[in-house]
């Protein structure tokens, strides 16, 4: 199951890098289901070197996804700020042109 989580994480990152956030979000729901089915790990799996490697890779991909998401969130915030400024300028223009 960890391999499936890793592969899904890779796909999510690739989609995020292509700015395909809706598709990445859909995969996140699938990945969450896999995580819920996988954890907690049994003792043998939890202490495996391969498990440690897979978990490190998954966590690394998660970090990259979070950074991309944060960057995208900031971009959207800036765009919304510009829209708000444009609306304020339009209102100010209308208000002064009526007088």
What is the topology?
Layout: H1 2-17, H2 21-38, H3 43-46, H4 49-98
In short:
This protein has 99 residues and is mainly alpha-helical. It has four helices and no strands. It has a single domain (2-98), classed as Up-down Bundle (Methane Monooxygenase Hydroxylase, Chain G, domain 1).
Written description of the protein model:
The protein has a single domain (2-98), classed as Methane Monooxygenase Hydroxylase, Chain G, domain 1 (Up-down Bundle). Helix 1 (2-17) runs parallel beside helix 4 (49-98). The chain has 99 residues and is mainly alpha-helical. It is built from 4 helices and no strands. The longest helix has 50 residues, at 49-98. It is rod-shaped, with a radius of gyration of 22 Å.
Bin the strand percentage.
under 5%
Mean of all residue-level pLDDT scores: 91
Number of separate structural domains: 1
Assigned CATH class: Mainly Alpha
Alpha carbon gyration radius: 22 Å
Question: What labels would you give this structure?
Answer:
Methane Monooxygenase Hydroxylase, Chain G, domain 1; rod-shaped; mainly alpha; 4 helices
